[in-house]
Design a protein that fits this description.
single chain; alpha/beta; eight-stranded mixed beta sheet; two-stranded antiparallel sheet; 29% helix; 26% strand; globular; binds cytidine-5'-triphosphate
Length: 233
Amino acid sequence: EPDAIVAALEGLLGGAQAGLLKDRRALVTSGPTHEAIDPVRFLANRSSGKQGHAVAAALARLGATTTLVSGPTHQPEPAGVNVVHVETAREMLDACLGALPVDVAVMAAAVADWRPADAARAKLKKPAKGGKSAPPSLKLVENPDILATVSGRNEGRPHLVIGFAAETDAVVENAVAKRRAKGCDWLVANDVSAAVGTVGGDDNQVHLITADGVEEWPKVSKLAVAERLAQRI
Ligand code: CTP
């Protein structure tokens, strides 16, 4: 049982490992973002924040000074982690830039790729009874890419930038291309097909993509994936 092995290792090495990342600074993003349509409606996605929060907790346990920039989730704040709560992709970018410099950045958030071009200041209303009008159409604009922005910094780029990839098809092939396109060092590829149940679920089966190649990790809990990633970091 991989989970049992991780737990046993943690118990065995816990004391010795507590300081492995001492004097290192870490930034982690987690959860979805909410992009306002009007004062009561928003665009979002099914991200739970479980994986990102677990990574932040695991890095803090190894002694890293850890900032977690989180979109709206129901996850408890991990112990010993400085949590910055945000709603939108643009707020998440600002909070991430404000947390630099760090030694390692792990971008696990499911950032909305697009937001409504203009959030309405008043609630959008249906026409009065008997009236007729077409349903409103949403005009979307692209959000900033936080991972690409942090990866591409000339000054103060973290030594190690790690992205996540949510893919439903050709997971490894798309993730290998995404690592290059985003300019990050490692990419953790998730299969987010509905059948696999990663989004919102407790388990995760990932591939770790680095410049050296592709590793397939076993399907284990998100906590165990986080622990293994933190060990590797
Ligand atoms: N990401 C980000 N900012 C965005 C979009 C994505 O920082 N505006 C980050 C995510 O946190 C993740 C990585 O980029 O670490 C890949 O996210 P993913 O949703 O898999 O890819 P996209 O860049 O959105 O590309 P696509 O949706 O076309 O697959």
